[in-house]
Amino acid sequence: MSFHDVFAPLTLDSEPKKYTYQEGADFILTQFSKFSPKMASFAKHAFEQQWIEAEDRDNKRPGGFCTDFPLERESRIFMTYDGAPGTVATLAHELGHAFHSHVIRDEPFENTNYAMNVAETASTFAEMIIADASVKEATTKEEKIVLLEDKIGRSIAFFMDIRARFLFETRFYEARKDGLVSADQLNTLMEEAQREAFKDALSEYHPQFWSSKLHFYIAEVPFYNFPYTFGYLFSLGIYHQALAEGSGYEDKYIALLQDTGAMTTEQLAQKHLNIDLTKPDFWESALEIAVDDVKEFLELTNDLV
Ligand SMILES: [Zn+2]
């Protein structure tokens, strides 16, 4: 398997289900309400007030974006919705960002500016609810395999691809202390980082990756890769707890989001979740979810290989 194969979608005979915008919205509202009625009613408000521009039209790029307007105390979402399960999850992701802004809107202004490592917590949590529910509600085995593969793809991105970027950037800063780093050196650093993060599992790597990845060029935010993996694991762990605790979790979760601009992540986790982030337990329980997906995927695909 080569580096580019990692990003290739899995195609089986059946096409995964498509959701009209209305169906996607209904699915999100139903699934959100299982975890948090407050989150669901907020999302309903965003849909009804038309805070979301989601049209799939020519010359509009894929992906999603959410921005908040603190004075209006509202958010707006700009995205391209094509009906694939992945874009339903993206819509949920952006609604998660908007919900985060919503619950901290009454905090003192200086406490509404939270750090990068918790900026993706609410969004990833919302996305997880939808991605998980889509897999559970898949009606055919093929559909389930495709959806699971999409979910596992995220784990690969967070634990391997983004880890490679982190290793690369760490070593780049070290090398830069001794002078300019040439393109050839950057290629070497990149490939070494990828080999290490992917555990030498691939037949080819992507040494020029550094030249095309936007995040390396945002000079005011160095290490703009680490927060994704941290945020992913942090919200996976929260999701794990939410599944175990049920409906009582909602207020705890909202209180945690409200404090994101006022505390370190270690303090947040200790105060609201009674968790010590400096110990491996919480992180390992988060990883378990990803490992379970892989196990299920292997079982389901056993007779296809
Ligand atoms: Zn996001």
TrEMBL record:
Any one GO biological process: proteolysis
Keyword Zinc: yes
Cofactor note: Binds 1 zinc ion.
SUPFAM superfamilies, per database record: Metalloproteases ('zincins'), catalytic domain
Name of the protein in question: Peptidase M3A/M3B catalytic domain-containing protein
UniProt domain Peptidase M3A/M3B catalytic: residue ranges: 43-288
Sequence similarity: Belongs to the peptidase M3 family.
